[in-house]
Design a protein that fits this description.
Blueprint lengths: L2 H7 L3 H20 L2 H18 L1 H4 L31 H37 L1 H15 L3 H12 L3 H27 L3 H8 L4 H37 L11 H8 L8 H28 L3
Helix pairs in contact: 1-2, 2-12, 3-5, 3-12, 5-6, 5-8, 5-10, 6-8, 7-8, 8-10, 10-11, 10-12, 11-12
């Protein structure tokens, strides 16, 4: 039944802790044996370090303009060159890691619990609750995420906060689907029947017993979905609906450099490379976690 089931039925706290540590250690060893997953983890850790130590890593003020240095090619003075306003592209990419990480974290922290609760309640309660929640989910899944996010941003107005809200509104349905599928399997298990016979309410069963069992699948789904969140945020920024100038956001930087793509290629290329590397890192890590945490 897994480590979460051991947690629910074991009477010894020390045994539960040992079981969790043993399971975690086995998963970590399995993850280390996957070189692509380790590479993805390294990229994600590098993103966290760059975002945390941006003032120490950046060579210039990301907002400082100097028209005398506009559109300089990559050199020792400006590693990735400068943009049309003379701003250092390398420093803007470094600080843009913070913006990207904030967007990803805010979206994940909002849509994960929402999708998990909706999916677990739908799968366990069934009946008209399941039908109503899943039809609402189907409506959101019927539209491409970027198109639906564009519609919400157009209604809310451009800006970083509104972009996060729009992405969160369009990102929860897959989490709900995964949680519902897990719940349909779990709700008929013997330990759930035992808890039900003890007189636990339906919501207590959902929150205390169903939701923890769905977490491993949701963690994998979250890691795989982070790349899509980054691309959606970059798409909104590229269209001018995400982070507004002068915030150094990678999608907006590509948009600002598209008119120079043939002559000053570095303006749009380096932010695009940053997006590709980070998205690849999250995808590789998500694939590795799926292989480790999904017994099937």
């Amino acid at each position: 039944m897994g480590v979460w089931a051991d947690y629910l039925i074991s009477d010894a706290p020390q045994s539960r802790r040992q079981a969790r540590l043993g399971q975690f250690w086995r998963q970590w060893l399995a993850l280390k044996r996957n070189p692509l997953a380790v590479a993805g983890l390294g990229i994600v850790v590098a993103l966290l370090l760059v975002a945390a130590f941006a003032p120490l890593i950046a060579t210039h003020d990301p907002l400082a303009q100097n028209l005398d240095r506009r559109l300089l090619p990559p050199s020792s003075a400006a590693w990735f060159g400068t943009d049309s306003l003379g701003r250092d592209i390398y420093s803007r990419i470094v600080y843009g890691a913070r913006v990207t990480l904030v967007i990803v974290m805010l979206v994940v922290l909002s849509v994960g619990p929402i999708g998990l609760l909706i999916g677990a309640a739908s799968g366990y309660l069934g009946g008209w609750v399941d039908r109503a929640l899943m039809r609402i989910t189907d409506v959101f899944l019927a539209f491409p995420k970027l198109i639906l996010a564009l519609a919400f941003v157009a209604a809310l107005g451009p800006g970083l906060e509104n972009a996060v809200i729009a992405i969160a509104i369009t990102s929860w349905p897959p989490y709900a689907r995964v949680a519902r599928a897990e719940t349909l399997v779990i709700r008929n298990a013997d330990y759930i029947a035992a808890v039900r016979l003890q007189g636990a309410s339906q919501w207590r069963i959902v929150l205390r017993h169903i939701v923890p069992m769905c977490l491993p699948s949701l963690i994998v789904r979250t890691t795989l979905d982070m790349a899509g969140i980054i691309l959606t945020a970059a798409g909104l920024g590229f269209l001018g609906l995400g982070a507004q100038p002068p915030i150094p956001e990678w999608g907006a930087m590509i948009s600002q450099g598209r008119e120079y793509i043939f002559d000053q290629w570095w303006v749009a290329t380096f932010p695009g490379v940053a997006i590709c590397i980070v998205a690849l890192g999250f995808n590789l890590l998500g694939d590795g976690l799926r292989d480790v945490m999904d017994a099937k």
